[in-house]
Give the backbone structure.
Amino acid sequence: MTAHVRLNDHIGALDTPEGLPAVLAVLGETCAAISRTVAGGALVGALGASGQVNVQDEEQKKLDVITNDMLREALAACAPVFGVASEELDTVEPTGRTGDHGYLVLFDPLDGSSNIDINAPVGTIFSVLPASSGQIDEAAFLQPGRNQVAAGYALYGAQSMLVLTTGQGVAAFTLDVDGQWLRTGEDLAIPADTREFAINMSNQRHWAEPVRRYIEGCLEGKDGPRGKDFNMRWVAAMVADVHRILMRGGVFLYPWDAREPDRAGKLRLMYEGNPMALLIEQAGGKATTDGKQPILDVRPTELHQRIAVALGSAKEIDAFAEA
Ligand code: FDP
């Protein structure tokens, strides 16, 4: 059997800016530890609600709190990390370090929390931005996704996998029994065409007209304007839906809807939209707000900003843009 390349050896062979390999190593180790906690479930007291509410008024699960603390603590001890921000924290947390070659790490510690208690896939999403040499405050984090020097996720599913980009393609790693991330995929490429879409259909009546038209076209299949049958998937954890798209193509939509007209969408730009957009673009797909505007070009105005998301197979995102 051929030996698989370890995560840290893979990172070491890349052309990365100073300090970044140490940050990615800590993210890899912490995601491996989170995988063990997720797998322990009820045996390690990881299921159920925490009784707390986060800054976005959402009820936190115990695992949201546990995994958030694991990442905060590990990253605070990593020298090149100058600050962290999390979907589960009110505001940013500077580590007290400043200078050159520093990084800001943003994360959704446990994506797809509604899946925790039913033993369905969940994940961790992370985004790494360069830190400026000045003060580390909220403004320092408000950089467009194009600035990311790395992005990735860990998926805790049938296998635990880590998928990573540093802007030089996308690689995938599988966690072995000894807790090592071993490379099992390189240069992931999303097929341009697809017959699979992912959207929460129960929100249909709240969507804007173009989204309704596009999905109606898919549902009409061979008999409609698209002239081909479509299949639908919805794992209800963005990590798992994006992973499927990276593996075999498809599109994932979480659009604006009329229930909260002032909110651009449900998902968060800084912890979900940007890191997934970098992975999707690096794998040859498109990641947009509306089929046209690239997510990576959005200039953030708020740390916990929401965003509409339409990403996946390039030609299908074009079809969505034309609907
Ligand atoms: P969750 O709220 O369970 O954490 O992050 C938001 C997210 O999950 C995504 O992972 C997922 O794609 C989506 O919300 C699920 O939304 P629905 O509740 O509408 O299915």
